[in-house]
Amino acid sequence: MANKAVVDGRESKLWFRSSTILKLLFVLAASLLLFPVLAELRLPLTFDDAFMFWRYAVHVRDGLGMAWNPDGIPTYGLTSQLWVWWILPFTATSLTPDLSLKLASMVTGLAGMGAIPWAAWIGRGKPAAQVAGILALLLLVIGPFSYHLTTGMDTMLSFLTNIALIAAALAWRHGAFRSTLLVGLAAFVTILARPENVLVAFGVPLLMWLLVLPQRRFGDILTALGIPAALLIVDLTVSHFVYGTVLPLSFYAKSGASYAGFINRETPLRYFAISLPAALPALTLLTAFGRSRALLVLAMTLPVVATFLYLVTVRQVMGFEGRYFIPFLPFILIPAAIAAADNCSQRARVALPLGLLCSALLILQLGQPLVERANSAWLRMRLPTPITAPQPATRAAAPLPKLPPGEAWAIVANRIVARLPAHTVIAASEVGMAGAAAPDVTVIDLAGLNDQEIGLQGFSAVHLVRRAPALIWLPHDDYTGARAALLGDAEFRRHYRLIAGAFDYGVAIRLDAPDRRQIERIVVRAWHETYPGSDIGDYIAQWPRLNR
Fold first, then answer.
1. How many whole angstroms separate alpha carbon 479 and alpha carbon 264?
2. Can you give the residue range of the structural domain that contains 123?
């Protein structure tokens, strides 16, 4: 026993020989690395989808429930309703939606970074926690993790709940009902955070029971998997009766007519490649030391591999900087820290991970052309043929210039939608900022993510015109099918005045809308603020007469 104590002491000293000084240096490094992230808080938030959560949270705060529109009809429009409840307290403050959403994701992400060493400590004690702390700090330097700290999306919530699942699994003891209960509850919570976590929620406990636990009792695994399964059935049943669907509308919408001719060039292969550098330090440690914890590594990573195989089949709209992949980093980082802690006394092997890391970075750099070729091949196989939309004639000599990325969303939200009368009904495909700018305006989501009719039945120009929105901000250019259907519809041309290309996609005002004059004044004002010196009349659509 005495010899073992001496060895353990040497292991710890190898990593942190001057513990106090190194901890101070660690805090200083973390502060310096966080400075650019904190500076990001002063910039406008441009992640449009994040504002959808804010609109739902405001409606919950105002007593309307989980509803997209002010009519209070329950809407299953979000893949993470848990994130709505997390940002709900921010709606009671005087902070802007931009800052509130950024702070919410930053607090959650930093909590996750702090939880990584905690989970590693559960698995292997102080040496593993120290290695995990370094790996967590490296996330701010390598890869896109720091970007996701301020997106306002649910990415960091999924990251944090996955760490909680890992911690519960590492603390799992056979025959202990409390620890088994924690595993089951953590599995369910991580599914609530993001539905694609379902494979790790069930797979990690199952494989931990099969491969890692010293004794396997069927009662333990039945409880660990039965709790999330039972709660998930309850959740799906409640969703069916409350929302009319068991799954978020995005699962239905993305296979419907709204996405006919959808030519979005985002691909899961590119986003996976973008997210991969964040995992490289941990992967090098696993390569060097993972054999000592092979069963733990398999239990943690096999469900992740299965999840990634699923994610590459998913249409990752606004999957910027690998946001679908980043939440699964802890399943690599924490086993890597534990495995490295097992071998930290082997001085001769300390250089091996560094060499592997340099090699991995070099391979990654040289592999970029290969990734681009694979990405191009993916697009050739998966990208549909665009559907040509009728183009109206105008008096303009040239089309309007495209606005910088994200600027059109903010302009329409702040210069048009925020100024509309409260009872106005509008329609658009880019609805995040617009919906958050005026929670009391009814917004028809042309992409179907927050609209039950379009989400379940697909986009129909005929049905949209019958719903008579006073203003339509036409679908994004990527929705070639929806744009072609709308611009080719005779009733749309008859009932709407189209300003071609306005605010990138075109704006149409209903001629018989009750507040038409006021809406026109608002649009004209926004036009002059956005396109000074241009005559809006030059861009009014002039349609040829249709045969009847």
1. 8
2. 109-253+265-374
